[in-house]
Amino acid sequence: MLRPESEAELAEMIRAAHAPLAIRGGATRGLPLPGEALDTTGLHGIRLYEPGALTLVVGAGTPIKEIDTILAEKDQRMAFEPMDHRALMATQGEPTIGGVTAANISGPRRIQVGAARDHMLGVRFVTGTGDIVKNGGRVMKNVTGYDLVKLMAGSFGTLGVLSELSLKVQAIPEAEATLILRGQDMRTAVADLTRAMGTAFDVSGAAWLDASASDGGGERRIRVEGMAGSVAYRSERLADLLGADHVATGNQSAVLWQQVRDVTPFANRPGTVWKVSTRPSIAADFCGALTSRGIAHSVIADWSGGLLWLSLDAEADTQDAGAAAIRQELARYGGHATLIRANPDIRAKVATFQPQPPALERIAAGLREKFDPRQILNPGLMAPL
Amino acid sequence: MQMPVPDPRILSQKDALVGALRKVLPGDAVISDPAETRAYECDALTAYRCPPMIAVLPASTAEVSAVLRLCHLYGVPVVPRGSGTSLAGGALPTADCVILGVARMNKVLERNYPDRFIRVESGMTNLSVTGAVEEDGFFYAPDPSSQLACAIAGNIAMNSGGAHCLKYGVTTNNLLGVTMVMMDGDVVEIGGAHLDPGALDLLGLICGSEGQLGVVTEATLRILPKPEGARPVLIGFNSNEVAGACVRDIIEAGVLPVAIEFMDRPCIEATEAFAHAGYPDCEALLIVEVEGSDAEIDEQLAVITGIAQRHDPVAVRQSQSAEESGRIWLGRKSAFGAMGQINDYMCLDGTIPVSELPTVLRRMSDLSDEYGLKVANVFHAGDGNLHPLILFDANTDGQLDTCEAMGAEILKLCVEVGGCLTGEHGVGVEKRDLMTHQYAPADLEAQMAVKDVFDPAWLLNPAKVFPLDTSDARRA
Ligand SMILES: Cc1cc2nc3c(=O)[nH]c(=O)nc-3n(C[C@H](O)[C@H](O)[C@H](O)COP(=O)(O)OP(=O)(O)OC[C@H]3O[C@@H](n4cnc5c(N)ncnc54)[C@H](O)[C@@H]3O)c2cc1C
């Protein structure tokens, strides 16, 4: 295992490498990575924190836990709510900011504040040729040159190993509330959620958990956050509009969104889990189509996060775990599916990422060829070699 | 401004290319008469002008593809153009180029309220996108001051911002997908109504690439429900530093205004004389706007004015009505027009960390003394995006040069304190040669490698973004 303690050392190690490297932070995501482990946790530490400018600069190997703690001391947070994969994936280790940003992991607040990519102000990284590159900076608005920050977000280490990140942070709002309604079917619930997200009430969470993912009968959750008076006003208006069996506030509300963020209801269901990115209004049809093709499943719709989580029922979890059918349907409806959890047999058969149209794959391959010509950075992860 | 020498081989093929273009486009969409191509000689950075060899106005993605296929075949550079409002010379032609304008592509293709997006052709103006969904209670958030004229195509190319981006983000945070034509004529679809790329984030790369990676013909944009209401408070201060400190405290307190705008004395005086908005007599003022229901607005404004009171304001005017709000915004909105009345000016666009505001304002006034040119400031303070206006007289010999030299010093200062050369206007030709102050050779090399992948012959929007000597070998 390689464990650089500085960016310069990281660059040296990459330059010296002759075989594939498996880049990892906390290794909590269970990605199928062959090759010698390149552990980034030595690139650790808070480099700069300016609460008054809402900016934080950190080493890529810094644990999320440490960042959360230092931000909380100033009543701030990373607004994009990155998922903690440990429950779902049954992994140990400490998630790092490098892993979160390299995978562009974002949670249910996405509708209001955007994804990890939207909070990344700047990056430093080392390419597959060992060159140290910086892009962006630490200011809120920056259009100086091409936006390689976005390119690095979600590139899963395949274009470069992140060494440092600068992030935009957010003040923790005074209050939050979640409206809960039970016993709806998917179509009704999704219609409610899209209606809520289309109001002026600045919804920061809209999710639906089906019967097997919630305590019976399915559960719709809608969240608002902000100043106390405003939260009270908006949750009342939303309850008038859409109904609510129960309104959770404060910590009780926060826990509900941690569940959605971490997909914890699926932690206890064995088998394959898919993460689907598509749009709300086709969701019920899409899920119906899967069921009628024999792919029985449970659903968590994190619509404010733009995600549909599918956990396959045991009888459907064979062969390719529904990959071909799911991806065919999505090609029709718009969107794509990423394999998040699967046994080694399925992993060996199914590409983690949905294959792209050839024209886009050519561009992606061209970028990999430029940034990692020797194919040593997580090779094969985002597209077959 | 140094531009590449026009290629005689290309110029000699003009007639052949015009003939070929006329076979794939309607007659009036191919402009080759020098009297008419002159209309495309510059964008809003009018100090630099150069008529293109040919201008074309395709009306569909298929026509754009046909044009690019031909230009690729002939090896002719192409400069994409939206509405030509770039302040960085992003759409400045070269004498041997084809200007490709998307102004005829201005249709709405799809509105979807449940999924909150609109799909449009890229020639639509920014304001008309909001116009298309407004009656149904939605809006498109990025709102550059040029929104009446500028096109979505240019907004995407420049990753444009606006007064309200403090809360809603800039173009890249509101762009879901594009249809783009590659330089060889291939049409690609990137992104869509869903949020995640599920692959490399090419959309994020294209937004802000200044027309150098492909020609964007259609866009899927995120639309948002309109807030119930909005109202500003105007706060006057005795010094720039104190106003800067107040901005920092508001941000830190966690109220999220939609806008925090800053004006200094020279700017206040000029706008007063021009627009008579009734601004207080003070060194600096802030306009802070918040959104929500009436009660929510009051709740937020109470916190903001509470913070302002700790900074000894000389005036606090909390708007209670649409009419008062209009008056508060009047001066800010006419600031550029007002400055234009009294002087020629050059508008800069650097960004700095908000904490450096007092230092930078002070050092700018030192530079102003040193160069003998006045600076007026009006900018988006919440996110540190400065727009210093250097006032000069274009008719006095040498003043434009002095002004440009001083502008470069101010932008270098922005970089020195941890900021950047451009927050929303783009690099274009204007800041091209300053790029080496912000980026090391390896940083620029990585960006140019991206260009190599999308446009291997470097035909799209030549001589922008990268210093000529850094990109020489590639453009050969
Ligand atoms: C008075 C005034 C106020 C302004 N205020 C703001 C402001 O508040 N915020 C802000 O961010 N900017 C502002 N600007 C700058 C300018 O309006 C923006 O940069 C705008 O996005 C440019 O749009 P356009 O359609 O005019 O583009 P153009 O000027 O035509 O082109 C701009 C760039 O886009 C490229 N391009 C054009 N079309 C395409 C296409 N189809 N595909 C690929 N590339 C393309 C061009 O090659 C060029 O590099 C202002 C300008 C003026 C004159």
Can you lay out the helices and strands and say which pair or pack?
The complex is a heterodimer of chains A (385) and B (476).
Chain A (H helix, E strand, L loop, with lengths): L6 H10 L4 E4 L11 E4 L6 E5 L4 E5 L4 H9 L3 E2 L8 H4 L7 H6 L7 H4 L2 H4 E8 L4 E5 L11 H5 L7 E9 L1 E2 L3 E8 L3 H12 L7 E5 L9 E8 L1 H15 L3 E4 H13 L10 E5 L5 H10 L4 E6 L4 E6 L10 H11 L2 E6 L2 H6 L8 H14 L14
Chain B lengths: L7 H4 L2 H11 L5 E2 L2 H4 L16 E3 L4 H14 L3 E4 L16 E4 L6 E5 L4 E5 L4 H8 L4 E2 L12 H7 L6 H4 L6 E7 L5 E5 L10 H5 L8 E8 L1 E2 L4 E8 L2 H14 L5 E6 H11 L8 E8 L2 H16 L5 E4 L3 H12 L1 H8 L1 E4 L9 H15 L3 E6 L7 E5 L6 H18 L18 H4 L2 H14 L13 H8 L1
Parallel strand pairs in B: 2-4, 3-4
Antiparallel strand pairs in B: 1-2, 5-6, 6-10, 7-11, 8-9, 8-10, 12-14, 12-15, 13-14, 13-17, 16-18, 17-18
Helix pairs in contact in B: 2-4, 9-14, 10-13, 14-15
The complex binds flavin-adenine dinucleotide.
Would you kindly provide a brief summary of this structure?
The complex is a heterodimer of chains A (385) and B (476). Chain A is α+β, with helices and mostly antiparallel strands and 385 residues long. Chain A is 32% helix and 24% strand.
